[in-house]
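#onboarding

Welcome to the new folks! Below is a worked example of what a typical request in this channel looks like: someone posts a single protein sequence, and someone else replies with the predicted structure as tokens. Don't worry about understanding the tokens yet, we'll cover that in week two.

Example request:
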Amino acid sequence: MSLLFKSFLNYICDMNILIENASQVVTCHTRGRKFKAGEHQSEIGLLINSSVYIENGRIKWIGKKLPVVLKKKHILKINAKNKTVLPGFIDSHTHLVFAGDRADEYSMRIKGSSYERIAKKGGGILSTVEAVRKASRNELLRLAEKRVDSSIGFGVTTIEAKSGYGLDTATEIKMLEVISKLNHIMPVDVYSTFLGAHAFPKDKTKDEYIDEILYEMIPMIAKKNLATFIDAFCEKDYFSPAQTEKIFRQGMKFSLIPKLHTNQFYSIGGVQAALSCGAISVDHLEVMTSKDINAMKGNDTIACLLPSVSYFLDIPYAPARKLIENKIPVAIATDFNPGSAMSENIQLVMSMAVQLLKMNVEETINAVTINAAAALGVSHNIGSIETGKQGDVLIFDTPNYKDILYHFGVSQLEYVIKRGEVIHNNPF
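Example response:
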């Protein structure tokens, strides 16, 4: 970030912002709902030739003609003529705190080795665990800061980050402390998820490690207030539904909210385990049976789909159309991680959702805004452009919101605004 731009940010940080005369404002309005499902997932609340006023970090007014009272205020005006305004994007599933890389494993997969075979040979998650255990807090923080900055450049104003590359108490705590630090020093909101149940370490039996999660990690994390959510990888050769439910119920005793990785390779009952614990989201869902889909119908649990994983690993894509047709709310996220989705680019993931999951443009926009906010339990505060909500707004250099995904492979993002402050500017 240049000194000139830092000075610009300091200048505007105490000002109110008026985004004037946008060709389109995509509000993603909720009409009082927590999320959008079924036919409502296509409703984006489009306004034409409108303006948005943000005061003290909150959206104060949306409309065409500026009220007289606002004309008397000290306001920073941004000319949005021929531009499109959207809510800030929310990346509700990432593993952005890690060290090392797995580029060699990527090459192995290209030559025909599967993700599962690589993991059984000591690669996969366990290879990243080794690198993270060796890395200092400062090194992990430095690497993570760069990744969050990169995410902001693609329009992310709220991001979730998981632990899970420690698999021992000290390193899981180290990762969660880094995530907590990120939330304090970065200009976006960073939500923390404890994912101790990501894999089993080599040096403990399964029962020993589960006991460590239950009776050592969870109480210590709660005492230090280091996580909002608790997650697990419920999958064949990882954590069973019964083990997952046991871990979740212990986490819930300490006020941690369940989220779940499941149905990535097999349907083994993970969806049902998550729902029995009231999980706020179930993520991945590449392999879904009719029983799994029926179980999710009528629940408030968000189906968070991760198309970049299917692209990167060359595995089946989640059945987004079936989920939407069954009125199950769908979010999408990057799953940014070193092994199965090495990209922070949420706009690329949106393109994949349209082309590969067969979601329409409007469904996709809601999937990274209001539904992604619901996957973090914060759709009352962010995820749409509505009066009273936090002023998290993006401005794209195009008069048509459809062009954001139509013109793929480039970013037309000009401004990222968080709580009424410009945190990224890419003038065209």
